[in-house]
Amino acid sequence: MKTEILRLLRHTDGYISGQQISEKLGVSRTAVWKVIRQLEDEGYKVEAVRNRGYHIVDSPDLLTKEELDSLINTRWAGRNIRCYEVTDSTNLRMRQAGDEGAPGGTLAVADRQTAGRGRRGRSWESPEGSGICMSVLLRPRFSPEKASMLTLVMALSVAEGIGQCIGGTDRASEPDVQSPAGPPVIQIKWPNDIIIDGKKVAGILTEMSAQIDYINYVVTGVGINVNITEFPKELEKTATSLQLECGHAVRRAPLIAAVMERLEENYQVFLETEDLSGLMDKYSALLVNRDRDVLVIGAKEEYQAHAVGIEPTGELIVRRENGILERITSGDVSVRGVYGYI
Asked: How far apart are CA 58 and CA 311, in angstroms?
């Protein structure tokens, strides 16, 4: 019932009376009043005016099932939510859920994870209450060799979701903090990093359970630095957060909802062709590597090349110094800037 009351409060222009809520939900006005009190105890600011009703003024930065359910407006992406205060890894939780038969679109969200992982075995730090750690379960019907493209689909969705939220409508209540002039420029570093001002703000890790010719499920994990204000010395030059870039705190639940909405739409476009051809223009417009010199780091060699763009199948196209074009698969190499992270 708490989810439904939150949704009514958020989607009603002006005030909604306790009588209207009780009639819509088929519960007593006393039950409605008790839930309103619970919301206030959790940090929600609900204005109550005699003869007018209730109006939600502000919301805390919570990652609860009720908060997320009241915000996510999709058909399937993020509609089955599992929330954790602390867990080892949301990807591990979703792999377990996949083995247990959870439906596609199931979403795991943790306020903190203790064993977060990034691409190529790197760790992902996630301080409590300041970041987003989430994983989505997908059950595609295409062949396993196409699954790697889902990393790029999610990267585009995260970049678009961030862009949708950091304009100010979903900032936390911090009236004394001034935003910098102009919105931050959000870009994608192929294949799985989201970049703002040359620094990493989010990363994506996609894992698959498959047989030879079909996929059991795919888990795509996302880590976003939202309200982190300090990084270890070794990360200061390459990592940032939305708060540092925007100048204000950002509420995490609306950002998760925005990413789920973008994922549902982009995933549907992807399924129509089972490649990135329908998303190429949007992805390429955000690609920070495009038309730049890059350092390609593989297991056996390291070389400089010029990044041209991506293929509809997700590979990065680079031109080697001898002029030969080469297609790089994300699982094989790491791509960095010649003189730094990008």
From this structure: 44
Q: What is the pTM of this model?
A: 0.91
Give which of 302, 316, 278, 275 is closest to 190, Cα–Cα. 316
pLDDT tens track for 80-139: 999 999 999 999 999 999 999 999 999 999 999 888 665 545 555 567 789 999 999 999
Q: Of 112, 143, 96, 152, nearest to 283 (Cα)? A: 152
pLDDT in tens, 164-185: 998 633 444 443 344 445 778 9
Q: Is 209:201 a contact under the CB 8 Å cutoff?
A: no
Quote the CA–CA distance of 4 and 28 in Å, as a whole number. 14
- Give residues with Cβ within 8 angstroms of 39, minimum separation 6: 2, 5, 6, 46
In three state form, how does the secondary structure of the chain look?
A: CHHHHHHHHHHCCCCECHHHHHHHHCCCHHHHHHHHHHHHHCCCEEEEECCCEEEEEECCCCCCHHHHHHHCCCCCCCCEEEEEEEECCHHHHHHHHHHCCCCCCEEEEEEEECCCECHHHCECCCCCCCEEEEEEEECCCCCHHHCCHHHHHHHHHHHHHHHHHCCCCCECCCCCCCCCCCCCCEEEECCCEEEECCEEEEEEEEEEEECCCCEEEEEEEEEEECCCCCCCHHHCCCECCHHHHHCCCECHHHHHHHHHHHHHHHHHHHHHHCCCCCCHHHHHHHECCCCEEEEEECCCCEEEEEEEEECCCCCEEEEECCCCEEEECCCCCEEEECCCCC
Segment 276-294 shows an average pLDDT of 95
Contact (Cβ atoms closer than 8 angstroms) between residue 185 and residue 175: no
Q: What span, in angstroms and rounded, lies between the C-alpha atoms of 119 and 144? A: 19
First-to-last CA distance in the chain?
47
Place of tokens 């209450």: 129
Residue 111 to residues 118, 126, 128, 278, Cα–Cα distance (Å):
17, 8, 6, 34
